[in-house]
Amino acid sequence: MTRIAVLDDWQGIAETATDWSAVRSRAEITFFRDHLGGPDAVVAALQDYDAIVAMRERTRLHADVISRLPKLRLLAFTGARNAAVDIPACTAQGIVVCNTTTTRSSHGTAELTLGLLLAAARRIAAGDAEMRAGRFQAHVPPGEEVAGKTLGLLGLGNIGARVARYARAMEMNVIAWSQNLTAERAAAAGATRVEKAELFAGADFVSIHLVLSERTRHIVAAPELAAMKPGALLINTSRGPHVDTAALLAALEAGRIRAAIDVYDEEPLPADHPLRRAPNTLLTPHLGYVTAENMPELFRSTAENLAAWLDGTPVRVVNPETRPG
Questions:
Q1: DSSP 204-257
Q2: Does domain 105-283 correspond to CATH entry 3.30.1050.10?
Q3: Tell me: the pLDDT tens digits for 171-185?
Q4: Annotated active-site positions, please?
């Protein structure tokens, strides 16, 4: 019987998130709750599977792994793109790659960005910790109002534009930059286009909303962090590698800036990672797209992809050159 692996179901919701019956009737599905680890561990766990479902970018599936999975014929991932999947390597091995494209993750990620901004500005986590410690206001610094402050957006696509609308509703000034952003597109989203250096120097809050690529990797590094206002907040709900983590840690330890982070270079974030001990931080475990509304949509589309592939007519194929016939 065909064997299917659903990876990185860390919250234990995949099996009940949608109806898998059309797949279960023809295949055996295994749901993996724990992160498998490095390449050798991934190969050892998955070498007998015909199909793999990757939850976004939680497991690295590059050529060094793909080449050692001789039974693999389908790699389906949730989301429109996945930088952790080596699509050319899959294509070279005749592996069909499918995605999901009709999901609402832009809502969840934009709303989490807003939540992190407000939580950091109003010291909500510190207030909660004080209450649970039996105290009241003694160790909670005054919060700050966001009305009249400036939000700088790196990227103004679907998510960035949604965040811009939220910010304008809170009477914030919004400035934006990306390599291809025009003044007209920025204005249509309620923002003012500025140069990158001006954004970092002028924003009270900086939020990242870019697609990860080689040209955006470490787009926020030591020079950008040094240019930020003292006490300004960096928010990253996009991808961890957009930020040079070593430079960020240095800026945080120096007390120059603050950070609210949902995404990391390595996920799950190791228990001994220095970010877990860094001052001036608010950390969440990659919750941007993880909502009660979005996850069922992701897995519903995934189940459709699997059923169509089992029928011999795969859909949402990213590498159509592997399509049968």
A1: SEEEE-----TTTTT-B-HHHHHHSPTT-EEEE-S-GGGB-HHHHHHHHHTTS-
A2: no
A3: 999 999 999 999 999
A4: 239, 267, 286
